[in-house]
Amino acid sequence: MSYYDLKKAANGDDKTTLEDKHVPVIDAPDKVKKGEYFEVKIKMGEGIDHPMEEKHFIQYVELYADYYQLARVNFTPEMKAEVALTIKLEESCTLRAYEFCNIHGQWEAAKEITVD
Ligand SMILES: [Fe+2]
């Protein structure tokens, strides 16, 4: 499901903590109406904030509807690594969020969404 740097684990980082800090969390309705705007919030990490420092930060997050890229948001260390996007869909799909940490690489999350 997600890229994971084994070398980092050998150096003492706990895999679970790394996942908690990196796997994006997609907050969106399970069901929406065709063609109607709704909000998708993405935050990086569950219950723990990822560092946003010059040497270690989330560089970007991308949102896909199946294989179609809906958005890409670039972050700087001055920002909080979360975003709210307003989108509309024409058919049911899997929303996927890919976030990229400059040290720990790419992490993915997915959420099924039904369009009526
Ligand atoms: Fe990281």
Can you walk through the features of this model?
This is Superoxide reductase. It comes from Orenia metallireducens. Belongs to the desulfoferrodoxin family. It holds the Pfam family Desulfoferrodox. Residues 16-109 form the Desulfoferrodoxin ferrous iron-binding domain. There is one protein chain. The protein starts with 5 loop residues before the first helix and ends with a strand. The protein has a single domain (17-115), classed as SOR catalytic domain (Immunoglobulin-like, Sandwich), CATH 2.60.40. It has 2 helices and 8 strands. 22% of the residues are buried. The longest helix is centred in the first third of the chain and has 8 residues, at 15-22. The protein is mainly beta and 116 residues long. The model is unreliable at 1-11 (pLDDT under 50). The protein has a 5-stranded mixed beta sheet with strand order 2-8-7-4-5, with no helix packed on it. The protein has a 3-stranded antiparallel beta sheet with strand order 1-3-6, with no helix packed on it. The protein is elongated. The structure holds fe (ii) ion. Fe (ii) ion is lined by residues 22, 50, 56, 101, 103-104. The site of fe (ii) ion has 6 residues, from loops.
